[in-house]
């Protein structure tokens, strides 16, 4: 039972990332009708926003520390972050330690700007083009973005630690009546799951309870009729592209302590997340989220040693097998609209 619970927790952790990326993919497809294969790159850019913010906080200058000497008795030269001069050593140290969650404030405007530039500069020219053209151009954009990151940050993963307060693991088993230290789970992975739930709930609440969101949902259902009412639905859809980029970006920010940011991590998540979107149903936001968590849990169980020993490699293909089965029996996906991908 304890192994089952651990696998469920692992699945929710993976599913959180899948669901957040798939949510952004579905927002773009549902509003603009664009299959955006660059969305995984936006997740990767979010991770590197955390790296960049951490480096900005660490900019330093050299000072002489009279209280410390080298082996010859000369005062040592030490590097002091500029932020320490401005805010004092204690506050500066705390901010540097909490750089990952604080970098969300840096990532949101950056990712919205990048999203708007991509949509206005490239995507808008492919609205009425076939999906194959959209896939090719956005996949090419993803390659360009990852090569830019590789040029500036290098090819090696960059460790981006979580705040020290969240190092270590939570004794999750005690809450369920197990003996102490039976089920231990990393604090930051738990935080990432709850963070993803908050973001997903926030996006759904925005679409459901705000006037802007209601207009967007109406435009997703019948774009022409909304346009005839005198509403500039294109501007609202452009904003939704920026919002989807921001969701992918902050998902990447918070994932940085779990998997060290590297230039190809966007591609690693993109293919799986696109499969999640297809399984959930193209254009269905609830379907994307539900499929993300369900497939994350399924992949986690398929990674159990006893399963892998019995069916070698099953953990690598289980999501694709499920996708094939679902699409053969229900081409529009679990919660997709009738007629989508059923022609």
From TrEMBL:
Membrane topology: Multi-pass membrane protein
InterPro entries cross-referenced by the UniProt entry: ABC_transp_permease, BCAA_transport_permease
Transmembrane segments: 17-35, 95-123, 190-216, 237-258, 270-298, 310-328
Subcellular location: Cell membrane
Major subcellular site: membrane
Biological processes, Gene Ontology terms: amino acid transport
Any one Pfam family match given in the protein's UniProt record, by short name: BPD_transp_2
Keyword annotations from UniProtKB, A to Z: Amino-acid transport, Cell membrane, Membrane, Transmembrane, Transmembrane helix, Transport
Gene Ontology terms for molecular function: transmembrane transporter activity
Entry GO CC: plasma membrane
Sequence similarity: Belongs to the binding-protein-dependent transport system permease family. LivHM subfamily.
Protein name per UniProt: Branched-chain amino acid ABC transporter, permease protein
Species of the source: Yoonia vestfoldensis SKA53
């Amino acid at each position: 039972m304890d192994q089952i619970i651990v696998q469920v927790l692992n699945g929710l952790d993976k599913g959180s990332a899948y669901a957040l990326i798939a949510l952004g993919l579905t927002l773009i497809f549902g509003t603009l009708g664009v299959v955006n294969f660059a969305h995984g790159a936006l997740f990767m850019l979010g991770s590197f926003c955390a790296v960049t913010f951490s480096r900005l906080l660490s900019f330093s200058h050299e000072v002489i520390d009279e209280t410390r000497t080298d082996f010859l008795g000369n005062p040592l030269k030490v590097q002091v972050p500029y932020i320490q001069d401005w805010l004092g050593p204690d506050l500066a140290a705390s901010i540097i330690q909490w750089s990952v969650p604080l970098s969300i404030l840096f990532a949101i405007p950056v990712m919205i700007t990048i999203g708007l530039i991509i949509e206005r500069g490239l995507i808008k020219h492919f609205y009425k083009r076939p999906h194959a053209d959209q896939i090719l151009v956005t996949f090419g954009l993803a390659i360009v973005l990852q090569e830019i990151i590789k040029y500036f940050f290098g090819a090696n993963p960059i460790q981006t630690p979580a705040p020290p307060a969240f190092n270590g693991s939570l004794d999750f088993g005690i809450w369920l009546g197990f003996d102490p230290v039976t089920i231990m789970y990393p604090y930051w992975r738990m935080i990432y799951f709850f963070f993803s739930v908050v973001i997903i709930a926030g996006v759904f609440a925005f679409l459901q309870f705000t006037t802007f969101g209601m207009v967007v949902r109406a435009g997703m259902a019948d774009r022409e009729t909304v346009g005839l009412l005198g509403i500039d639905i294109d501007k609202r859809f452009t904003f939704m592209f920026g919002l989807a980029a921001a969701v992918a970006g902050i998902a990447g920010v918070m994932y940085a302590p779990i998997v060290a940011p590297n230039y190809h991590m966007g591609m690693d998540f993109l293919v799986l997340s696109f499969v999640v979107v297809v399984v959930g149903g193209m254009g269905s936001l609830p379907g994307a989220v539900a499929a993300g968590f369900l497939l994350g849990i399924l992949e986690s169980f398929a990674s159990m040693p006893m399963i892998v020993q019995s069916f070698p490699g099953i953990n690598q293909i289980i999501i694709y097998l499920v996708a094939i089965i679902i699409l053969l029996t229900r081409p529009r996906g679990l919660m997709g609209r009738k007629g989508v991908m059923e022609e």
